[in-house]
Automatic annotation (TrEMBL):
This is Uncharacterized protein. It comes from Paenibacillus ferrarius. It comes from the Bacteria.
Amino acid sequence: MKKTVLVNISYYVEIDDSENELSQKIQRKLCENRTLESDDGNVFLKWNQSSFKVLNPQIMNCGRCSNCGCWTTDMEKHNAIFGLDKGAVHNNILLCDECLPPDHRWAF
């Protein structure tokens, strides 16, 4: 019996302000259906949806981890951003789940 699995993948793309058309080009390319080879034969990936979001820490619940620099969202605040690494503020600094202390509830 076959079942359907929803796969979500996030990419970070650094663009200059002058490159406002790049996201449309990337979106067109990412929206193509794909066939992947696996040990069990070919797997068909059918595109379903995509979204683009310009990350702005001034107005959004996001920022760079103070330790490693990856993009993260504070899971202890409202409006956490799906697709970013989970994180939290610890000792007044934003840390991702991999940089939080091991005993922190959001640590990986």
